[in-house]
Amino acid sequence: MTFSSSSSVPALAAITCLVVVVLGCYRPVEARIPTTLDGPFEPVTVPFDQSLRGNAVDLPESDHRVRRRVKGFEPEQISVSLSANYDSVWISWVTGESQIGYNIKPLDPKSVASVVRYGKLRYPPTHEATGYSLVYNQLYPFEGLQNYTSGIIHHVRLTGLKPNTLYFYRCGDPSIPAMSEIYHFRTMPVSGPWSYPERIAVVGDLGLTYNTTTTISHLTSNDPNLVLLIGDVTYANLYLTNGTGSDCYSCSFPHSPIHETYQPRWDYWGRFMENLISKVPIMVIEGNHEIEEQAENKTFVAYSSRFAFPSEESGSSSTFYYSFNAGGIHFIMLGAYIDFTRSGKQYKWLEQDLANVDRSTTPWLVATWHPPWYSTYEAHYREAECMRLEMEELLYSYGVDIVFNGHVHAYERSNRVYNYNLDPCGPVYLTVGDGGNREKMAVKYADEPGNCPEPSTAPDEYIGGFCAKNFTSGPAAGKFCWDRQPDYSAFRESSFGHGILEVKNETWALWTWYRNQDSDNKVGDQIYIVRQPDKCHVRQVLKSWIVDI
Fold first, then answer.
1. Pick the CATH number of 73-530 from 3.40.120.10, 3.60.21.10, 2.40.160.40, 3.40.50.1370
2. DSSP 8-state symbol, 394
């Protein structure tokens, strides 16, 4: 069901039991879902439940869900990701065994073919596509540290697909033979103002813990059409190369000559996630735990090798930033751990990508990156201020509707905000770094007595210089932190969980956050996010000229 496209037409009273029952929520009249038109909201903090598992325990390598179950060069760790538009997807998988030790010998990626056979019928397949393969290494020039070489990673792009269509596929090398079982995926709907994926799951800072398994179980039960992972994938860098792990790497291993990482955790993660992401496309953006430095100052090698990205299709030259359409939504995935300055390649790409967006075809504009700009937790407080100062004005000028972030291991929803001020045309910022990883849950707020960080501790060495300063206006003028929950923070709670975005039409979208400790269908936070294109000033492109309308 869809509402009228005009944000003023559905009177608030109409969005009650009748509408919501048809949408499948079955809520009573008195439980009307709030909308951003009701805001800005008074800030709400849900007290931390001390009975929750604030710490998380990683799945061991002996767990049957992460052990290698295939033989020889049979495909494993199979996943689907989107290209820039509905008519193309990527299929990725791994063949052969990875190695870790002091005398590793990389596999030859040319020794196994990269083939996908697919079609609209389960059998026989009617199409075949070939792709490319690679092997990556994680090397350390220090005595006593073990090196790693991956299995053969394959990426194959399928093209010419129909929108909103179920396809069956097998991947592997038919000449060995070593082909997978039959899997399936559904393409995205065609882009348009009335065409959207039914449910988009959003999660960040996932890791591979017992809490992660709960998150993914609940997420899967919500039957998403697409998964967004907002950085920090496996947390392999909480381990030494000998497999010894810790909740706090710097605390436990202060004398390590380099920040080590135990790359087999990536293989464990790929095996665990295969049941979901071999059927449901996953789109990933890098987080700080993907940096994984190694010899020759190389970084992000596992991240850039294991996932397929629509970088080339979206005009990007990097795996760290790209864009894609999912029905009437244009997603922009940005990198916080590479150059984001206005003179850099990413910013110039972002300018061009935004200028190319046709809001009559993709009315919704959603941006994601890992570290939040608007988080009120003590952890990572104002850490990405340099990035905000460079990019916020541009994103605001093009009317970005929603921003998803991770990094902070908790949940927070903002009021519409721009430059720390309440603004009815600013984005709604949603921090979902609560996927369940091994590091501790964030439970302290910067506005609580004694919790405001020293400004000099705010910058992250990988994000930029010292940009966060005392506020110059508003209730926190002259201070680095507010002395109460800031006005721009609408709702915050420390709990593991995930979110579901359901875009209903060109102006209405339902956002729901689910907590791990609840039953699958119990809601932790929920709101309709309403666009007001008739009231908010948005830049558009007209005949190759950027104009304001």
1. 3.60.21.10
2. H
The C-alpha R_g of the chain, in whole angstroms, comes to 23
- Average pLDDT across the chain, whole number: 92
pLDDT, tens only, 420-435: 999 999 999 999 999 9
Beta carbons within 8 Å of 128's beta carbon, 6+ residues apart: 115, 116, 117, 118
- In angstroms, rounded to a whole number, what is the distance separating the alpha carbons of residues 387 and 341? 7
Parse the chain into domains and list their residue ranges: 73-530
- Asked if residue 413 has pLDDT above 80, the reply is yes
Distance CA 312, CA 331 (A): 15
- Looking at residue 475, the DSSP 8-state letter turns out to be T
Six token digits for residue 127: 């199409």
What is the C-alpha to C-alpha distance for residues 107 and 96, in angstroms, rounded to an integer? 8
Distance CA 43, CA 35 (A): 15
Which listed residue (155, 330, 370, 380) is catalytic? 380
Task: Convert 372-399 to b/e letters by CB count within 10 Å (16 or more is b).
Answer: bbbbbbbbbbbbbbbbbbbbbeebbebb
Q: Answer yes or no: 498 catalytic.
A: no
* DSSP output for 259-302: ----THHHHHHHHHHHHHHTTS-EEE---GGG----GGG--SHH
Q: Is 488 helix (H, G, I), strand (E, B) or coil?
A: coil
Largest CA distance in the chain: 69
Average pLDDT over residues 392-416: 98
pTM listed for this prediction? 0.93
Residue 92 β-bridge partners: 79, 155
Q: Report the sign of the C-alpha dihedral through residues 379, 300, 322, 317, in that order.
A: positive
Residues sharing a CB contact under 8 Å with residue 400, sequence separation 6 or more, in sequence order: 332, 365, 366, 367, 427
Q: Which amino acid is at 537?
A: H
Residue listed under structure tokens 């300018």? 351
